[in-house]
Amino acid sequence: MRINGRKEDEMRKVRITRNYTKYAEGSVLIEIGDTKVICTASIEEKVPHFLKGRGEGWIACEYAMIPRATKVRKVRESSRGKVDGRTMEIQRLIGRALRSVVDLNALGEKTIWIDCDVIQADGGTRTASITGAFVALVDAIDKMNRCRRFKEYPIKDFVSAVSVGISREDEVILDLDYIEDSEAKIDMNIVMTSAGEFIEVQGTGEKRPFTRDELNILLDLSEKGNKELIRMQKEALKENYLLTKK
Amino acid sequence: MRINGRKEDEMRKVRITRNYTKYAEGSVLIEIGDTKVICTASIEEKVPHFLKGRGEGWIACEYAMIPRATKVRKVRESSRGKVDGRTMEIQRLIGRALRSVVDLNALGEKTIWIDCDVIQADGGTRTASITGAFVALVDAIDKMNRCRRFKEYPIKDFVSAVSVGISREDEVILDLDYIEDSEAKIDMNIVMTSAGEFIEVQGTGEKRPFTRDELNILLDLSEKGNKELIRMQKEALKENYLLTKK
Amino acid sequence: MRINGRKEDEMRKVRITRNYTKYAEGSVLIEIGDTKVICTASIEEKVPHFLKGRGEGWIACEYAMIPRATKVRKVRESSRGKVDGRTMEIQRLIGRALRSVVDLNALGEKTIWIDCDVIQADGGTRTASITGAFVALVDAIDKMNRCRRFKEYPIKDFVSAVSVGISREDEVILDLDYIEDSEAKIDMNIVMTSAGEFIEVQGTGEKRPFTRDELNILLDLSEKGNKELIRMQKEALKENYLLTKK
Amino acid sequence: MRINGRKEDEMRKVRITRNYTKYAEGSVLIEIGDTKVICTASIEEKVPHFLKGRGEGWIACEYAMIPRATKVRKVRESSRGKVDGRTMEIQRLIGRALRSVVDLNALGEKTIWIDCDVIQADGGTRTASITGAFVALVDAIDKMNRCRRFKEYPIKDFVSAVSVGISREDEVILDLDYIEDSEAKIDMNIVMTSAGEFIEVQGTGEKRPFTRDELNILLDLSEKGNKELIRMQKEALKENYLLTKK
Amino acid sequence: MRINGRKEDEMRKVRITRNYTKYAEGSVLIEIGDTKVICTASIEEKVPHFLKGRGEGWIACEYAMIPRATKVRKVRESSRGKVDGRTMEIQRLIGRALRSVVDLNALGEKTIWIDCDVIQADGGTRTASITGAFVALVDAIDKMNRCRRFKEYPIKDFVSAVSVGISREDEVILDLDYIEDSEAKIDMNIVMTSAGEFIEVQGTGEKRPFTRDELNILLDLSEKGNKELIRMQKEALKENYLLTKK
Amino acid sequence: MRINGRKEDEMRKVRITRNYTKYAEGSVLIEIGDTKVICTASIEEKVPHFLKGRGEGWIACEYAMIPRATKVRKVRESSRGKVDGRTMEIQRLIGRALRSVVDLNALGEKTIWIDCDVIQADGGTRTASITGAFVALVDAIDKMNRCRRFKEYPIKDFVSAVSVGISREDEVILDLDYIEDSEAKIDMNIVMTSAGEFIEVQGTGEKRPFTRDELNILLDLSEKGNKELIRMQKEALKENYLLTKK
């Protein structure tokens, strides 16, 4: 049993609310336990400079927290005048994850902006962002598809992400909350497709190195978590014909 | 009748949810029609440089919108590397309004950080921020008071804010939504106490100058709106003994 | 009698010097008592990005103080790398005030840059900036008109601004100097046209709220001040045929 | 055979030159094929703000490229006024890797600054930086140790890093050069200790997802690479008594 | 005869107005022809970080132009968010020039801020700044001296600066105005003491290299110019007992 | 004899290594004693905004030091978010020096970026940068010439730079190293062509003013130094037909 009463391989309660705000083409509130992230997908009719004239689209991601999403108030990045390294790392990760399941050529010369704004942070904000943003992305692409049908539906697969780790008590645990995360010896974030293949594997020995055997147990556990998350995504998106047919 | 079906002196539906997030000392979601703002109040055990050693406290305010709070996605201020003029103007206004009803000497050498993060913007975000932030501020000060009772309770009065204006059709209207606001000829924001006195009066002739008579009708209307808002604040805060006794 | 020997409704000595510097299309030194501001109007043959291709013009305003315009040297905004909130608020106010009396369509696709640089600050720099910048603006538009006559003269009315307030001694006073301003209980800036209508009303209860009656007396006083200022503008511009004919 | 003539599990030629520049406490030029990085370790007699007064030390890392280290000149980050996301990600990785093998308590209240400046970039600059910076770090700590002997020698283990990947031709390859890296389907960076345990595992499906089997082969290969690199580090540091005795 | 009607060795009319603004400890308007610079000297009761606790003072210099000091409006450095290279070069030059004639030890732990704000720029703004700022500096130090007499008067000598150059017509000319400066083949700025010794010599072959003979003629001419300027400074400061006694 | 054992008019050992890195069109390592600078020249097929459409080329220069090029680690300018005044001054000097010997019209609409990155700084980095960058520039232009022969070879002359000064012991010395430079009373940097004419003369009385006679002796010495440097450049470039034929 963990300090939060969960079993080692037990995820927190997940809730995905679509159409959370009214303006964005895709807008999702994802709640994983007390972690709450608003994920929006916005369509812009142009691409970044480096892609101009190539007929391809782009998915750009930004991540932020409201200042009191955390236990101690964090100074706003707009006040500090710059985005910090952790934020950059996370928004790059979200971008890679989502782009990996989208056919950017099929999109045409458009940018989809993904914004993940953390309202409450209790561990796992980056994996919740990926999981929630994917649903917002599907909604936005669906909206585009209803306007002017894509020749080829641009989304190739589901993608979700989960954290796993080795706790202070040397237990292998799934879906770490904030306290577990801050004390974990080993910390991993795993991004997966619905086929159970890896998009991204990031593991760090925060307090000590880890062995190949430990890595293997952690990867097994992440597979279980991601399966559950993709099932939740499918349920939330159930009426989405084109994607779930896949 | 207005385009949104309201009467000229009719406000939108107001909802104030306290304890909206779990970490902040005060945390309020205020909804005024489709305008939604998360207002948090955070206590910091020090004051800004210019107040050090004077025994006084400070109330610092920041305001932001998530990028897709608006119809068209707005570039993040953290990505642009600077806070724009509109944001600065708003956070200065919120700060002045809240400080006007707090006895900063009674606070002691502490800063209360007020963060107003707009989740959905449908007009009147700055007035909603003041009205909601006041409730968060009371909760935070109340929490401080429960820990170590203030000699003198620092909040001196209620404060709320409302917008009034003259519409495209030359009607005097209360609580403008986004469409009304963008077409208004005259636009005012009025901050008031529970005694019906003014803290701040800001009126702009956006499309034409306005007369003294027009100003008077607008001020009358703002009084009606602010009365309703303060009634809502009192209802939301009902168990707050010290303040409502006042 | 006030601490500076003026009567309650007495303005400081006003002096408007046109053609103060030699390069700008309009260049005015305005002195209101010891407050001295250089206001220049510069014509640029293009408009900001958001107006391109719409045939309209723009009036852009910037405000700054030289570091020792004030009693204590103020760090340069260029050294700090950003413009502070007060400056932004002021330059936005000046811009709104001047644009309110100009027909931007009649201007054509041009920007007129208004720069207000405070040489010496003894209270009322924002209102002096508006009053002086209007004269520089007329000179610049006049110069354009001499080159290629406008179909419709773009300036629709005079505009000036004045401060009024309630002093530490609870007297209602006109045109506050620095010491009066820093101690005032209520502080207002009022922007008006020559017809005595309002462009902008900004009043703040700095030390206490204010009543409707107090507001009314302050507005009366501001009317007196603005009338005097517009008379000074007319005198300074007397040979300007097109405007004064209006 | 690869396009560069190497076998699949063959690393490029590695050369580690100690004392490359004369001022730094540790200064190493590491060359891995045509990738050349200057790694310096500098001792500063204080710690960052967040560690003050706790008796612990810190290792801070910065990474940069000279503008023409790359095929196309890259704009200097100092000219752009900010550090980009890739740089931040890399310097955070280097920092975590080095801190993982150092006992920061044993260091005392000192910061060791690690600077990795890429002179020529032909793939694998982040892994070369880790491998080279470790040697510079040992030299700096050794110098500290000669001045005032540590009670406990602060370096606990060797650490090195290598890249592995799956090429365009679906071959599993070790130590990717720039062309291989830009075309790789799967790209991994693996940081290891001398015991063959993991400090950090980062794998990305750049062009397609990857399976558990592929991951396993890649990890095997990285073990081979890191063993060779640590052998090179040991050889370079051979006279370093305290470390190699371990 | 030059295009401006001056003889080759003829300076423009120089006017030095002391006490130009009322707050600064020293405040000078220097006019050299149409070039006008406000130079203020402000005393701050602390020194920059790098001098703390050493008992020495510092002279810090900043230089700026109001946007329309020039023929074409220059974007404000505060709006651009950074100071440009030309400005930095000039303020470093002014600082070195003034510090060279002041005994910083005699000053004590104080900073004198020199601000040179160009109101109108018609060539030679950096040399006018040095010449005018010196007078403001003397006034500020004199004011300090009247409060608490220095053991040793900190100003050791007069300092002034002038520009010389070789014109488009290959004439050697003194005190270039803007047109001459922009067309000059060779351009020099020479900073001198009252003894006719050099503090700084900066010569640039803008359009062609220059010979030793040309350099010599230019230096002769600069001596004549600086003598006149120092005579003007002495005249302006005539009642300043301590300095002129020297 | 100097503290470093050199005679007063003796330069340090100079070594110029061409093709130091593999990507840049011109790439030189210049070593002057312990001062080491990597100078690269990169061709960009466009010109800065202010030159567009005029058929001319441009030479843009940037200068930086790796953080531990110096005795005490210098904070990276990219971390500080801005380039400091010394750096700006140096890169402007290098730019002027190189542009003075190139016919920018003959270049066509191209920019040659010169990057001088100091690896080790032991005095004279700006003069070493000019001397080394010239060789890199010739190599880059030569490469352009081999692709598409210039009608007129754009390089008009050699250019080099050297420092001279008056030491603490009042000796006139050539090519100051770091210790000499930090203690020098007078410090000069002289940029010259192969004909012995001046491109730039910059002399500063760091600790005291200097006389015309001292200036003359310093200039004589700089001529000797620059002759040696241009001889080294010619030797390094010997196979460069077009230039050395000149």
TrEMBL record, chains A, B, C, D, E, F:
<dbReference type="InterPro" id="IPR018336">
    <property type="entry name" value="RNase_PH_CS"/>
</dbReference>
<dbReference type="GO" id="GO:0031125">
    <property type="term" value="P:rRNA 3'-end processing"/>
</dbReference>
<feature type="binding site">
    <location>
        <begin position="124"/>
        <end position="126"/>
    </location>
    <ligand>
        <name>phosphate</name>
    </ligand>
</feature>
<dbReference type="InterPro" id="IPR002381">
    <property type="entry name" value="RNase_PH_bac-type"/>
</dbReference>
<feature type="binding site">
    <location>
        <position position="86"/>
    </location>
    <ligand>
        <name>phosphate</name>
    </ligand>
</feature>
<keyword id="KW-0808">Transferase</keyword>
<feature type="domain" description="Exoribonuclease phosphorolytic">
    <location>
        <begin position="10"/>
        <end position="140"/>
    </location>
</feature>
<dbReference type="GO" id="GO:0008033">
    <property type="term" value="P:tRNA processing"/>
</dbReference>
<keyword id="KW-0694">RNA-binding</keyword>
<dbReference type="InterPro" id="IPR001247">
    <property type="entry name" value="ExoRNase_PH_dom1"/>
</dbReference>
<dbReference type="InterPro" id="IPR036345">
    <property type="entry name" value="ExoRNase_PH_dom2_sf"/>
</dbReference>
<dbReference type="InterPro" id="IPR027408">
    <property type="entry name" value="PNPase/RNase_PH_dom_sf"/>
</dbReference>
<dbReference type="Pfam" id="PF01138">
    <property type="entry name" value="RNase_PH"/>
</dbReference>
<dbReference type="Pfam" id="PF03725">
    <property type="entry name" value="RNase_PH_C"/>
</dbReference>
<comment type="function">
    <text>Phosphorolytic 3'-5' exoribonuclease that plays an important role in tRNA 3'-end maturation. Removes nucleotide residues following the 3'-CCA terminus of tRNAs; can also add nucleotides to the ends of RNA molecules by using nucleoside diphosphates as substrates, but this may not be physiologically important. Probably plays a role in initiation of 16S rRNA degradation (leading to ribosome degradation) during starvation.</text>
</comment>
<keyword id="KW-0819">tRNA processing</keyword>
<comment type="subunit">
    <text>Homohexameric ring arranged as a trimer of dimers.</text>
</comment>
<keyword id="KW-0548">Nucleotidyltransferase</keyword>
<dbReference type="GO" id="GO:0016075">
    <property type="term" value="P:rRNA catabolic process"/>
</dbReference>
<feature type="domain" description="Exoribonuclease phosphorolytic">
    <location>
        <begin position="157"/>
        <end position="224"/>
    </location>
</feature>
<dbReference type="GO" id="GO:0000175">
    <property type="term" value="F:3'-5'-RNA exonuclease activity"/>
</dbReference>
<dbReference type="GO" id="GO:0000049">
    <property type="term" value="F:tRNA binding"/>
</dbReference>
<protein>
    <recommendedName>
        <fullName>Ribonuclease PH</fullName>
        <ecNumber>2.7.7.56</ecNumber>
    </recommendedName>
</protein>
<comment type="similarity">
    <text>Belongs to the RNase PH family.</text>
</comment>
<dbReference type="GO" id="GO:0009022">
    <property type="term" value="F:tRNA nucleotidyltransferase activity"/>
</dbReference>
<dbReference type="InterPro" id="IPR015847">
    <property type="entry name" value="ExoRNase_PH_dom2"/>
</dbReference>
<dbReference type="InterPro" id="IPR020568">
    <property type="entry name" value="Ribosomal_Su5_D2-typ_SF"/>
</dbReference>
<keyword id="KW-0820">tRNA-binding</keyword>
<keyword id="KW-0698">rRNA processing</keyword>
<dbReference type="InterPro" id="IPR050080">
    <property type="entry name" value="RNase_PH"/>
</dbReference>
